[in-house]
Request: fold
Amino acid sequence: MFGISAGPAGSASRNPRFPVSRLRIIFAFVGSVVLAALAGCGAANLAYNNAPMAVAYVVDDWVDLKSEQRAFLKSRVESLLVWHRANELPAYQQLLREAMARVAPAPPSGQSPNKFISQAAASTTASTAPSGNSAPAPTVQDVSRLYAESRQAIERVAEKAMPDIVAFMQTLKPEQISYLERKFTEDNAKLEQQMRAPLVERKRARVTRYVERFEGWMGKLSPEQVALIQARVEPLPFSEELRLADRRRWQAELLAMLKSRPDAVTIEREMRVLLLTPEVRRSAEYRARWAAQQDVVMNLTAELMALATPKQRESVRKRLDGYVNDLAGLLKT
Reply:
């Protein structure tokens, strides 16, 4: 919910499972593009139907694709979309409807949203739903379950795509592996540059990111809500050093594997770890900090929804409803 993952402290990724590198986002793209599209403006259809081209574009930025590899990627993503449309989009609709039911009610038939919100505000405090008209605010358990189910949706896409991922990686040439290695070095240098900013500036920017993400869903936050975000987020330790060390570790492992010209079994084993269970090879300190960050984000989301005004809950509901409508449109095309 709210597009904020429980990633390493200092980040607020829109991707719930693969926040460390765009390399992982390549294979999560098809699963997440629907949820990332702007509701109610046709962007979902555009993004979804252009996924083959978009995936090829992102991969090309990392390995400098050959023409035959580009054609392979587009063809396989097109096939993945056929499966995804039939099997995953209905599940996304159900997940979003469940989230809507936990956030806020739809206005009764024939009643305008503004009138409904006014009545709700008159009959309740900010943290209590209108009697008989709405479910209570989502609990931490609700938020955690929605987060887990969204992760599972991405994992199902990665599982389905795994044979094609393996087949593609077997086509990489030595010069493309060297190209990827240079891109890793450049990307790591960017993170190192970000780490040089003064601590007070990094803390301020992190709080601002969280406020902006939540306001994107809820509308303008109250001073109390902003203060809550600041109180929960500001004390979190920054994890850039751990993140960079872990990034360099898995990058080195991936490059060493590719340079060894591995068989399909080896590639699949390593990609399953990288894409599905990256935490198993992380340091104990990084795993602990990751888990602590998850807890903060889950609890903060539930706390903010408990403080949400009827207007804010309606804002969340309308955005979720927009996603549901986008999915319905995709299912018809």
Residues 5-42, 109-133 have pLDDT under 50 and may be disordered. The chain has one domain: 22-332. The longest helix spans residues 140-169. DSSP finds 14 helices and no strands in the chain.
